[in-house]
Amino acid sequence: MNARADRKAQDPRPGRLIGLGVGPGDPELITVKGLRYLRAAPVVAYYAGPRKRGNALASVEPWLQPEQELLPLIYPITGRPPPPPFDYEGVIRRFYDDCAGRIAAYLNAGRDVAALCEGDPLFYGSFMYLHDRLAGCFETEVVPGVCSVVASASALSTPLVYRDQTLRVISGTLPEAELKRQLAGAEAAAIMKLGTNFAKVRGVLEALGLASRARYVERATMADECIRPLSEIDPATVPYFSMVLLPGERWPGAGADASAKEVEAQAQRA
Ligand SMILES: C[S@@+](CC[C@H](N)C(=O)[O-])C[C@H]1O[C@@H](n2cnc3c(N)ncnc32)[C@H](O)[C@@H]1O
């Protein structure tokens, strides 16, 4: 080892933590900057369920280099947690503490770590729990990703909000009464975290007369993406990676009154 490398081994400059938005499915939805950072990272951390590789890792597999070290962060529990006295919050807190400690060991050794996050890292992303624990101690940069809300609207080919409409992002985990309150006042909405909450969400949309306007999409931009009317969904089959979009009412101005036939006729005349 030469003197410079020896000094680095004894007192390395801490590595950089990078929160990297990827997917949320299609590997090509990574940004140019995200791809550059991913390829340069010696260590790539990713969350996954037990015995799974995780959607974030799947989204970058085509871009990984053989020499990169993978650091799996395996959730101790996924799906609906057992009821109290099981200390779910405590288990999850200790899990994120442990993940942060493992990543800090790499950073202290002078190695950069790219922590993958499905969609955008700071939008309901599990990277946030690493950021909370590590950003104050290590140089940290967040590379935004394509949020699943806009990826789902694109998958549905549905305009989400026009002009001055407001979009509400709502978690399907909310109690029924709160869901009703949120949706009753919404011009447009994205209802996330469906899974076992789907039947409750659909029931509320039906009660409010919004079900026919709402659209369901699961695994948007993934190879097994699935789009079906709400009424056809078997709640037992709804995965976590799904959402319901309630697009804003079509804006009546700006030429929207021209029918598709008129537009086609105009195009043919041109
Ligand atoms: C923990 S949040 C992660 C959000 C993510 N950071 C983002 O920017 O979209 C997980 C929720 O995002 C939504 N989601 C993530 N990826 C999705 C996809 N490919 N298709 C549909 N919904 C998705 C689902 O509602 C899921 O329950």
Summary of the model, kept short:
This protein is α/β, with parallel strands linked by helices and 270 residues long. The chain contains nine helices and ten strands. It has two domains: 3-146, Cobalt-precorrin-4 Transmethylase, domain 1, CATH 3.40.1010; 149-246, Methyltransferase, Cobalt-precorrin-4 Transmethylase, Domain 2, CATH 3.30.950.10.
Describe it for me?
This protein is an alpha/beta fold and 270 residues long. The chain folds into two domains: 3-146, Tetrapyrrole methylase, N-terminal domain (Cobalt-precorrin-4 Transmethylase, domain 1, 3-Layer(aba) Sandwich); 149-246, Tetrapyrrole methylase, C-terminal domain (Methyltransferase, Cobalt-precorrin-4 Transmethylase, Domain 2), CATH 3.30.950. It is built from nine helices and ten strands. It has helices spanning 3-10, 32-40, 55-60, 88-108, 127-134, 148-156, 176-184, 198-207, 260-269, and strands at 17-22, 43-48, 69-74, 113-118, 140-143, 167-171, 188-192, 215-218, 226-228, 242-246. The strands form two sheets. A five-stranded parallel β-sheet has the order 3-2-4-1-5, with helices on both faces. A five-stranded mixed β-sheet has the order 6-7-10-8-9, sandwiched between helices. A hairpin with a 7-residue loop joins strand 8 (215-218) and strand 9. Helix 7 packs across helix 8. The longest helix has 21 residues, at 88-108. The chain is globular and about 70 Å long. The structure holds S-adenosylmethionine (SAM).
